[in-house]
Each structure stands twice: as structure tokens, then as C-alpha cells.
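Troubleshooting entry. The earlier prediction with MRU gave an output that would not parse, so I re-checked the input for stray whitespace and re-submitted. Clean input:
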Amino acid sequence: MKINGKEYRTIWFDEKNQTVKIIDQTKLPHQFIIKDLKTVKDAINAIKIMKVRGAPLIGGTAAYGIVLAIMEKNDPNFIKKSSEDLIQSRPTAINLKWAVDRMMKKLSEVNNNELLKVALVEAKAICDEDVKFSENIGLNGLKIIEEIYNKKKDTVNILTHCNAGWLATINWGTATSPIYHAHKKGIPVHVWVDETRPRNQGANLTSYELNEEDVPNTIIADNTGGILMQRGQVDMCIVGTDRTLSTGDVCNKIGTYLKALAAHDNNVPFYVALPSSTIDWDIKDFKDIPIEERNPDELTHIEGLDKNKNLQKILIYPQKSKAMNLAFDVTPAKYVTGLITEKGVCEASEKGLKGLFK
Ligand code: MRU
């Protein structure tokens, strides 16, 4: 998708410099900076401090992390340790483990002298596949938006939480892909963008990327969705997911659950968009999902431009107050209207998911 009119992906391999390029998302929307990842440590760090974030993109970054590890030291112990460190870098999104396991399986099938070549091909394949998944999610979700538009004959208002946009994937996004497809088809859409405290991925990333594609959107405080739904100003919600259980329960950015409850109470359809790489077929009880707890600094401090347009970080809470920063919550399947996947839309249940993914 576009930034300043130029097409980008969120991650790519720079053949000339033999580095991995990423867009530093900690600086958006105020600064657009492309960074080089040169070592597996760079990749781990970028995931941890969220220069890259969003489940599919951290999967893609982990895949390229393995490439960087091989480039550093073609030694089986080092590569294995690197793969474990990559998986540990953020605990909730299953794509990390999915991508690393896939890379390691592929590498186990080839000779040492072929490792780098094969790893590069596989990392690119993971990223290219994700683009295809996201595009198909868009085409499948487009049908739902079209249906609402055909009934309403007026702008379709869609609420989203966090950033499950193209910046969270390799391209297109998951939750935003149906929106981009509808917009490109000329269906009038407007997006209510939850700010998404504490890191403001909605305001800083979703609104930013929608602006760059000229999709009308309005940022709202996280607690505003409820009244908008009561007033009939939300036609549907679409969110992403970091881990979808085979039961249809969905783990996503903190606050998603409360939005699903409000949608349920107001008969607003609540859809979750996901590529199959975010399905966890093993865990059955959502209480077993590891929920990331991040540094409370992300709550107590806020970053923005001062009057001289310099980025500043300031304390906004009482100095003595404690803060707690859980990064994800779980929305039980009963509140999910449907799962929009690359293979079609299904019920949020084992039956629904197994119907699409045998
Ligand atoms: O903490 P983040 O910014 O990595 O969280 C991202 C989300 O919660 C997204 O909704 C999810 O990863 C899906 S991305 C297509």
C-alpha cells in the first residue's frame, strides 16, 4: 500500500546491502524511517520494542531473523538458539512460532551449504503468501460490506480496534483489507478508528495508513464505540487477531473484548479477520494463551510532537501511581459473528474452522 504516494511492503530483503529493511513503526505517524536489520539480535529487538508489530508482520520478521542468523554464523547451535530467542521475543501472537517452525523444518531438509539460499526463498515465500492471504481476506470481507451497502444505500460505518492494517501484515492488512477493497470498488466506507491506548496503534498507525489511501476515518477514544453503536452509527466491526483458537475464541489487542460485548448488546455484527497462520490448533482453553504484559511506561508516558515539531516523551500519570499494562484480551467465540479468512468466511467454531481448513 502507499505512503506519500509510493507503494511499500512492511519488510523486504535488500539484495545489494544484504540486510532486511523494515519501516520503523515506533516513529509513525510523525517520522517515516526505514531501518536495516543486520543481525538476528536486530530482528529480535525490532519485534520486542515494536518497530515491527502485528501478528503476520512479526511472523515475517522472525522468518527473516533466521536468514540473518545464518548469514552471521552458519552453525546449527547458533541457528537453533536464535530460533528459540525469536519465538520468545513476544509471547502472544502465534505467527512467530508458526513462521520459525516452518523455517526450521525447511532447513532441516537441506545441506549446510544450501541453508542461506533456502532460508531466503522460504522467508520470501512466507511474506508473499501473507500478501495473498490478506488480499483474499479482503475479497471475502468485501462481500459482507457490499451486502450492508446494498441494504443501506449509504456510507458503511466500520469500527476497528488497534492496527490490523497493512502495517501489521506484509501488505493489505487483515481487518483493513475488506475496507481497502470496498473503497477501491467505489463503495462509500467510513472507519471509526479506536485510538487503542496505551500504544495508540489505532491513532498512530490505522488512521495514518487509511489517510495515505484516502479512506475516510475518524479517531475515537477507546470508550466511545459503545455510544456510537447505541446511536446506530456503527454498521459493523472488523478486528484482527494474534491467536485464534480452534474453538473460535479470539485473542487480540486489549479492549477488543469490551468492543465485542458492546456490539453484541447492540446487534452490531462483529467480524474477526485472520490468515490461517494465526490459528492455534493446539490450545483448547483460552485461559492457556500467554498474555503479554508490557512495561507500564507505555501507560504512564506518552509520546508526541512538541510545538517545535520535535518528538518528546512525557509523564502523564501521578509519579507515585502504579500502572498495569496487559497487551491482549480474549473475545469468546459466542460474541464473534464470523471469521473472515483467506479461504472464506466461517462461523467462529471448531466446525466452522475445520470446514475451511481440513
Ligand atoms: O501489540 P501489537 O500492535 O502487535 O498488536 C497488534 C494486534 O493486536 C493486531 O490486531 C493483530 O496482531 C492482528 S494484525 C493483522
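This one parsed fine. Residues 102 and 122 are 8 Å apart (CA to CA).
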